[in-house]
Amino acid sequence: MKTFCGRANPTTGAMEWLEEDENYDYHQEIARSRYADMLHDKDRNEKYYQGIRAAVSRVKERGEKAIVLDIGTGTGLLSMMAASSGADFCYAVEVFKPMANAAVKIVKKNGFHDKIKVINKHSTEVTVGPDGDMQCRANILVTELFDTELIGEGALPTYEHAHKYLVQEGCEAVPHRATVYVQLVESKRMWAWNKLFPVHVEAEDGEKIIVPPSEMENCPGVPSVCDIQLNQMPSSDFTVLSDVVTMFSVDFSKPVRSASTYYRVQLEPIKSGKAQIVLSWWDIDMDPSGMINCTMAPYWVKHTSAFQWRDHWMQCVYFLPNEEPVLQGEKLYLIASRDEYSLWYKLQKARGEEESKADVLLESPVCRCQAHLLWNRPRFGQLNDKNRTLQYVKSLMKVLKTDSVCLCISDGSLLPVLAQYLGAKQCMHTSRTDLYHPHELLYAVFLANHLEDKIKIIEARPELLTSSHLEDKKISVLVGEPFFATSLLPWHNLYFWYARTAVTDHLTSDVTILPQSASLHMMIVEFQDLWRIRSPCGTCEGFDVQTMDDMINNSLNYRESKEAEPHPLWEYPCKSLSDPQEVLTFDFRKTVPQHRFSTKGSVSLLRKGKSHGAVLWMEYYLAADISVSTGLVQISNEKGNCEWNPHCKQAVYFFSSVIESETLSDLPSAVAYAINFDTKTGEIAMDFKL
Ligand code: SAH
């Protein structure tokens, strides 16, 4: 079987699917998987164990044999919990082959191979009967198939099928039930991830405004979930408009229906304001009485002192189709619609409309304005970032002249509009055309601002530009943010440099390139929690899961050099252990050189702490003295706590071994690094020695 892996290619700006050989064995998936994070989630593990013990006892008290079905067994953890709680037999089903193989090894190592049968199948393929995978139907159903949105990993269809074909009527289920909670809020910060706000530009001839197209204002957006670490959102960034209410529950011990449906609850705003966002999370009761409860409630709701950090389950932000003013005490209905895998929300003011609207509500939202397809949530936030816009305005003002012919290379950028407002003679925009349709969106923006005749959209990717596209003009100002929708890691936006190289023949000899250069910055950090996702577990609730650690480690080391991974660090607190250091610079005024370039050096550790890894980000020098950072904003206190750009993901390179220095004189005072930029592939490889 062939395995394909998706990768961003910075030299073409495209997403490419690489075919891996048969020895590949899903290393990327394993190395980036959430298994370690789940095994570190003590709260989850303890509660599953308690719930499983209680379910086995209830079955035994009835005088029955305890036959367990564990769907999505992963490491085999929940089946081993069941077996040690006295279950007579467990069927552990796992669809992902490398994990099923690992489960077999782990079960054997822990001495449960006569009690647990690992079945490497999707649960819907499992057969029951004397010659089947399972001898008989199970009377205990154990699963952990939930994502942050609860149903996004297909829990509902899996349960529906299991109740029909794999478990007995009246079976015990762990968890017994899940409940989804919602709270209505107003938040300019979060709303800015979903709508383009008017952009104010101070030009020499007065203030000008870029207005969003009207179809964007009323667009329902896309149903893909926005999952975040809501605990990192300060309470000053949103206003609560309602109490927390229960939206719906699912009882997993009874037949489950996965078909599309909707739920409606009544809400009474506790405050007047603009209803924009529904915050949501869930909890699971491991037992029927609800005594064993595992909750994702955020800090302002949860009143327990024991706080469990986890990344595999977070909280959801849902955007209402449009903002609506609500009054304190007014009667409102909040409607959650769902299909098998996703949820979306709507507010309804009067009850009368409800019946006729039922059909409409079941249809999942479809983006009509293109913006929600081209721009992800952080990108919206970036475009709405006033300070960032100001830096571009200031630098454009420095470089533009009345005879400037300006070309912008970026995916769906507003820079040509800024350049037009700031007096460029002519503005054009080009972008990659392969994956997205930035042109339609841009045209709508230009139309809304009466600029459709003033800014030319070139429907050819930079590498294919001809003089006729440019009306035989030479470009005197080449601009880019740079932003490309396919970029995953900070340096993937270096595609701007490759595109700039490709259009060289169309540039004037004294062309201004904005940004003129970029540099890669690096800093050593100690994470408060994020380290857990890549840290070995050893044992989990008394079970030896080292096989899993070894498997992850093996996958991390599959390529010659380990890779950095993208994380939005505003969600993951860390402190700096070193000063930020500039490690590589890329001069966009020149073309991409033929040869690879690299740097070696060392960075001194200034604070004591655990060196979990290095964080890397790009800074763009727009014009003299003006730069924008996609990473560190500032180190906010003497403890080294960091503030990060909230609209960008940074690159995190986890060290394979963690060095802890209690005192500064202890252990290494510096970390040695070697960083390589391969101009042929656009990739950056790195190595660190502690
Ligand atoms: N039970 C483990 C792992 C949970 S992760 C634990 O609690 O630690 C969920 C696992 O379920 C993944 O390994 C995924 O591959 C698997 N999975 C999801 N749906 C499945 C299905 N319908 N049939 C079989 N495996 C499934």
Describe, in plain words, how this protein is organized in 3D.
The structure is a single chain. The protein has 16 helices and 38 strands. Helix 4 links the parallel strand 3 (67-71) and strand 4. By secondary structure, it is α+β, with helices and mostly antiparallel strands. The model has no long low-confidence stretch (mean pLDDT 92). The chain has five domains: 2-32, no CATH class; 34-177, Vaccinia Virus protein VP39 (Rossmann fold, 3-Layer(aba) Sandwich); 178-195 and 214-369, Hnrnp arginine n-methyltransferase1 (Distorted Sandwich), CATH 2.70.160.11; 374-514, Vaccinia Virus protein VP39 (Rossmann fold, 3-Layer(aba) Sandwich), CATH 3.40.50; 518-689, Hnrnp arginine n-methyltransferase1 (Distorted Sandwich), CATH 2.70.160. Strands 8, 11, 12, 13, 15, 16 and 17 form a seven-stranded antiparallel beta sheet that branches. Strands 25, 28, 29, 30, 32, 33 and 36 form a seven-stranded antiparallel beta sheet that branches. A five-stranded parallel beta sheet has the order 5-4-3-6-7, with helices on both faces. The site of S-adenosyl-L-homocysteine has 19 residues, from helix 4. Residues 176-348, 516-673 form the Protein arginine N-methyltransferase domain. It is found in: Cytoplasm; Nucleus. It comes from Amazona guildingii.
